């Protein structure tokens, strides 16, 4: 076990070394980080994506956009912003949402958060979601644990290449 102190915590709590702590929120989760093989950009953040009739989708989209803003501002992504791309979205969620939340609703919210907003100068990954040539979405149950009570969103992308398969690998694998 490795000791970590969470933001706002007043005592030391022992977490497994593979635990992931969000720099943005200080929240913690555990488990593998999956990304698209040969990706040029990857981001993982601890955020809950809610969809449904009673949920304000604009607020959820805004929350994702704010959390991923620094990542999307990466100047190295500039050459990819207007070109076709392969995009992978991994969402780790609790048991209830895994059983009841439709994957297409999750995708719509995430794509809206990643695309350019014509009304502001906010950060974006691509100009329009029509640039996404291939999309791989993986909805999985998060590992439940007393210390970890949050969902996780992992996004990775690469330039579109129809000769390459969309293969997911663990972040620490090459």
Structure described in brief:
By secondary structure, the chain is α+β, with helices and mostly antiparallel strands. It is built from 3 helices and 10 strands. The protein has a single domain (20-170), classed as 60s Ribosomal Protein L30, Chain: A (2-Layer Sandwich), CATH 3.30.1330.
Report on this model:
There is one protein chain. This protein has 174 residues and is of the alpha+beta class. It has one domain: Holliday junction resolvase RusA (60s Ribosomal Protein L30, Chain: A, 2-Layer Sandwich), CATH 3.30.1330. 20% of the residues lie in helices and 28% in strands. The chain contains 3 helices and 10 strands; from the N terminus they run ββββββαβααβββ. The strands form 4 sheets. A 4-stranded mixed β-sheet has the order 6-9-7-8. Strand 3 and strand 4 form a beta hairpin. Helix 1 crosses helix 3 (103-114). It is globular and about 40 Å long.
User: Percent of residues in beta strands?
Assistant: 25-35%
* Average pLDDT metric: 76
Poorly predicted sequence stretches spanning 5 or more consecutive residues: 1-28
Shape: globular
* CATH homologous superfamily title: Holliday junction resolvase RusA
Give the H and E element order: EEEEEEHEHHEEE
- Multimer state: single chain
Give the end-to-end Cα distance, rounded to a whole number of Å. Answer: 25 Å
Q: Work out the helicity level.
A: 10-25%
């Amino acid at each position: 076990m490795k000791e970590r102190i969470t933001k706002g915590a007043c005592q030391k709590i022992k977490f497994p070394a593979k635990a992931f702590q969000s720099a943005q929120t200080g929240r913690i989760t555990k488990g593998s980080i999956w990304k698209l093989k040969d990706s040029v950009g990857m981001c993982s953040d601890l955020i809950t994506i809610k969809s449904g009739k009673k949920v304000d989708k604009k607020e959820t989209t805004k929350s994702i956009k704010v959390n991923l803003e620094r990542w999307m501002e990466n100047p190295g992504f500039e050459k990819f912003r207007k070109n076709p791309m392969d995009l992978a979205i991994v969402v780790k969620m609790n048991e209830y949402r895994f059983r009841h939340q439709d994957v297409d609703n999750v995708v719509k919210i995430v794509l809206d958060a990643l695309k350019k907003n014509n009304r502001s100068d906010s950060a974006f990954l691509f100009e329009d979601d029509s640039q996404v040539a291939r999309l791989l979405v993986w909805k999985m149950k998060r590992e439940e644990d007393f210390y970890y009570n949050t969902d996780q969103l992992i996004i990775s992308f690469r330039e579109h290449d129809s000769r390459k398969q969309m293969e997911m690998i663990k972040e620490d694998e090459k």
